[in-house]
Amino acid sequence: MLFINGSWKEAENGKTFESINPASGEVLGTAADGSRRDSAEAVKAAAAALPGWSEKTAYQRSAYLYKAWEIMMSRKEQLARVMSLEQGKPFKAALGEVVYAADFLLWFAEEAKRLYGEIIQAPRPDQRFLVIHKPLGVVAAITPWNYPISMITRKAAPALAAGCTVVLKAAETTPLCALETFKVFEEAGFPPGVVNLITTSDPVPIGEEFVSNPLVKKISFTGSTEVGRMLASRAAGNMKKIALELGGHAPFIVLEDADPVHAAKGAAMVKFLNMGQACISPNRMYVHRSLYKTFLETFQARAEKMKAGQGIVDGVSLGPLMNEEALGRVDEQVRDALAKGARLLCGGKRLTEGNLAKGFFYAATLLADVTPEMRIYREETFGPVAAVIPFDDEDEVLAMANDTVYGLAAYVYTNNLAKAFKFFEGLDFAIIGINDINPTAAALPFGGMKESGIGREGAREGIMEYLERKSVGLSV
Ligand code: NAD
Fold first, then answer.
1. Which atom of ligand 1 is nearest to the CA of 452?
2. How far is the CA of 325 from the centre of ligand 1 (A)?
3. pLDDT tens across 116-172, in order?
4. Which DSSP helix (H) or strand (E) runs through 16?
5. Does any ligand 1 atom lie closer than 6 A to the CB of residue 448?
6. The whole model's pTM is what?
7. How many angstroms separate the alpha carbon of residue 380 from the centre of ligand 1?
8. Which of 316, 320, 401, 417 is 20 to 30 A away from residue 19, measured at CA?
9. CA dihedral sign, ordered 289, 410, 316, 311
10. Structural domains of the chain, with CATH
């Protein structure tokens, strides 16, 4: 069902599409196959709801978001279950994502009340300058499948807090997660038209409506750099504001003074998180040559312990990839690396034993001696494959790490404070983890440099993305 103007409805053409469990191939349910006309109706509803919503006080908008946070937290197990079944990640990780998703509702319930204007010094004695903020208007949001609930709240919460209304198009492989999230919004009682959901099997016409409908004032997109680039150029032609959270290719650097065992444990934990399907997943691991052997041994032992299966089953640490195509892409990168001289230490193949054959499972894989000529060194992998590269010189590794079109996340392991700062400041990436594999939270800005995106989500500035600044000069 689509959620438009406060009601659940079928797609106007009556069509539906299936949501598939990627671990078993089973059909989990169906969703309305929204059309371009449905999205236009949702935009119209959002535009109609805008005056009422934007005129509410920040305290009132905050109360809705706070309620949504409470409801989401009270349902976290149920939401995590749906996510684990539909997207594949282990239940514990899904539970973590639901809490992270709810955090955005709470954070922006609080930030809604912390919007301040400014009084600025004027050059003339009889003049006064003031600046206030106004909501941008209707926001069209497009979200990916890999974090199917938190990417929704990371966009919707700040937009709603700012006084904007929202039409969200969910990813086609995870419509049920989106439906469950919107049930939370429905129960929180947002007025009709303030938040609207379009599910669809074909995103192209919906994207076209978003970039061309004059009622849409901003497009907020999370997904691949390729689609983001296309939407940005179309949106620019129509003078729409755009925020882009795109792909990444994170370096993970282990400096000579680091503990290689500790670093390898951290590397394995973050690499296999969500089966490697994360924009901040380490894609190139540079390890000082003196630590290389120990790092590889520790990592390999961790990789070999990963237990593949349905995310919902207790003890499973490696779920399936999203579909056949994703499996193919990952395997192609591995084959390419091996053909060009990489060493396979474990994994390197699709898993097909027993019931695993029914899903899209790829083994936890460790490749050593990766070189810049290999595709995996440049292309986002989105799978459970670690690519490790030895290095000798610190300055050289910094330059190598920065030699990418992406600029989202980077990780460094060191026990030297001066080096920690050198890499924090020198890495051309927006999110840095130093001896820390989880440098993300609702309180911290999230977003990319270079081709990883435009804009920031979360944090103090997250709400600013949905506001215009208005200034006034007064003669007194
Ligand atoms: P994708 O670009 O294929 O899809 C993302 C969303 O865009 C989906 O909702 C999809 O339906 C929609 N879409 C696809 N084509 C469209 C079109 N022509 N018009 C309008 N919408 C369209 O990406 P994906 O494979 O679903 O997601 C993985 C990518 O997302 C990776 O590159 C990953 O790094 C990135 N990602 C980035 C962040 C971040 O915060 N930077 C977070 C999660 C994922």
1. 41
2. 15
3. 999 999 999 999 999 999 999 999 999 999 999 999 999 999 999 999 999 999 999
4. strand 16-20
5. yes
6. 0.98
7. 13
8. 316
9. negative
10. 2-246+452-475 (3.40.605.10), 250-441 (3.40.309.10)
